[in-house]
Design brief:
The protein is globular, with a radius of gyration of 17 Å. With 222 residues, the protein is mostly beta strands. The strands form three sheets. Strands 7-6-9-4-11-12 form a six-stranded antiparallel β-sheet, with no helix packed on it. The protein has a four-stranded antiparallel β-sheet with strand order 2-13-5-8, with no helix packed on it. Strands 1-3-10 form a three-stranded antiparallel β-sheet. Strand 6 and strand 7 form a beta hairpin. 12% of the residues lie in helices and 40% in strands. The termini are far apart. It has one domain.
Length: 222
């Protein structure tokens, strides 16, 4: 309880400055995620994070509060089946249990997220330790949407929340977003850490990618 109150105090001071919104953050020891390998030649995981968590974060008021990463599949336009959205989270903080959250897919146009394309869909994890939570999507992007935002809505209010994670890369790669109080903006983050640990697995069940080109495609979002 004392540690929680300490972090709440820091978050309150920060919210009055750069965030201008109700926000809470918990620093936890980072753990490197194991290397991902595709289940077949036609599944790719798109990502920007380093694989190591720096902070767990959340909002005091969660309904309508989203975070997400934008992706562009123009170079791999055959990979339109969004199989999974993966969120790095934990049941350990702030209330030692899973509460559930929403995931969704937004259109991305003009350099920012726009309308909701798929979802929101509710998901409640079951794993017992911090790590990647895989949320099934199994939906195909419309032909008009090569760019999209995979997003996470906290949904509940603190402390009955499942947090999202920021990685340990202090350099912002410019693809993480937040939706709060009715508008989208680039993710502000905490202490210089702004890269959201959210990934997407896409699939192409009709076009076969040659093994020589698969390695290049897999590295697009690394």
């Amino acid at each position: 309880m004392r540690r929680l109150l300490l972090w709440l105090g820091l978050a309150a001071l920060f919210a009055a400055g750069a965030w201008g919104a109700d926000y809470v953050v918990e620093r936890a020891p980072g753990a490197a995620a194991p290397p991902w390998s595709p289940g077949s030649d036609v599944s790719l995981e798109l990502k920007y994070d380093s694989g190591t968590q720096q902070y767990f974060s959340g909002w005091y008021t969660g309904a309508g509060a989203w975070v997400g990463n934008d992706f562009d599949i123009t170079m791999i336009s055959g990979f339109r089946a969004v199989k999974n959205i993966k969120i790095y989270s934990t049941p350990s903080w702030p209330n030692a249990k899973w509460d559930g959250f929403n995931v969704g897919v937004y259109a991305f146009a003009g350099g920012r997220p726009t309308s909701l394309l798929w979802g929101p869909t509710y998901f409640k994890p079951s794993r017992t330790s911090p790590g990647w939570v895989t949320c099934p999507v199994n939906w195909t992007l419309p032909a008009a949407n090569n760019a999209f935002v995979a997003a996470f809505e906290q949904f509940y209010n603190f402390p009955n929340i499942d947090p999202f994670a920021l990685d340990n890369n202090g350099t912002f790669v410019g693809h993480s977003w937040q939706y709060y109080v009715g508008s989208w903006s680039l993710l502000t983050g905490w202490g210089g850490y702004r890269n959201l640990m959210l990934r997407v697995v896409v699939d192409n069940t009709t076009v076969v990618v040659a093994p020589t080109s698969l390695g290049r495609v897999k590295a697009l979002y690394y």
